[in-house]
Amino acid sequence: MRTSYSKKHKAAISVLSGLTAALLILTGCSKSEETVYQIPEDRKLIVYTAHKADVYEPIIKEFEERTGIFVELKAGDTLALFDELQQDAPGTFDVMFGGGVENFEECRDYLEPYKVSEIDQIAEQYRTEGDAYTPFSVLPTVFIYNNKLVYPVAAPRTWEELQTDRWKGKIAFADPTKSGSSYTALCTMLQVSDQDEQKTLEDFTGALDGYLSPSSVAVLEEVNAGTRLVGITTEGMARQKILEGADITVIYPTDGTSAIPDATAIVKGAKHMENAKLFLEFTVSSDVQRLVEEAFFRRTVRNDMEEYAAPEQTKLKTIDYDIHWASQEKEKILNTWETLQGRTDEKVD
């Protein structure tokens, strides 16, 4: 299930080895003896993650401390990691941690289904047919704007507004061929729009005026700095940036938005299957889901944590986001997108 666009995203991916085998050299009287201490296979877990370090580090650390399992971690961009999932030999790694559910849907054939023991505590709308993957956190797509440069009454409230000349060259948006959250945002725009898919993509490409933010993190930095006036991001990232002192405001699109989860899954052929199951259980535990809300500023996937119910001002007008369509049409949408990026210097009607 490879996509024609994915190979170009095999950019450098940072490799973080959690705790690797230690090498101890002992020197004897007559000759040197080398003794290698290796971590037993039943105490290992290999995880690929699309999460940022501030999300995966505390979770991996706590998991290791509680279980005594040593995690080898490889972090990178969402689409690059899922490309590796499709190309690597079975058993190369055990768990895919992070990435939009569209990516997991596309790669179902590469995943080992597993039903977590607390499935009844997972909100029904986030469960997946066949338990191919396990939801982790809910990521509403939102707009942000710079408080110093945009008056509240002038800020865009709908997806349609972002496609107009009014915001041409003023929008921060990461490349959806690299950023999973941007692909979700693009599909949200397409599903909200009443006009033809091609026309929507053309109008939005025209509004971007040839510029794409280098990363999802850069979207927030650019809007905060004022190099772009408005941006498209996730609620959690925006809330965290505001807590850090950014002078930006979050807008929940009035014509509707998506609020779908990212996920975690066991890879088919995983060599450390039991440890992988323990990790999935851990990600949806009440302790980790409190981190999701309190430390990562995301929304929990659990249905038994009423203390985190969204206040009135952050309630969403959510659309019935079609995950299957977003997965099945991914290659077509992104191929069209890339073609349009090559025409950004031309007039888009």
Describe this entry's structure for a reader.
This protein is of the alpha+beta class. The protein folds into 2 domains: 183 residues, 3-Layer(aba) Sandwich (D-Maltodextrin-Binding Protein, domain 2); 144 residues, Periplasmic binding protein-like II (D-Maltodextrin-Binding Protein, domain 2, 3-Layer(aba) Sandwich), CATH 3.40.190.10. It is built from 11 helices and 13 strands. Strands 1, 4, 5, 6, 7, 8, 9, 10, 11, 12 and 13 form an 11-stranded mixed β-sheet that branches. Strand 2 and strand 3 form a beta hairpin. Helix 5 crosses helix 11. The radius of gyration is 22 Å and the shape is globular. The protein starts with 14 loop residues before the first strand and ends in an 8-residue tail after the last helix. The N terminus and C terminus are likely disordered.
Keywords:
alpha+beta, eleven-stranded mixed beta sheet, disordered N terminus, 349 residues, 11 helices, D-Maltodextrin-Binding Protein, domain 2, two-stranded antiparallel ribbon
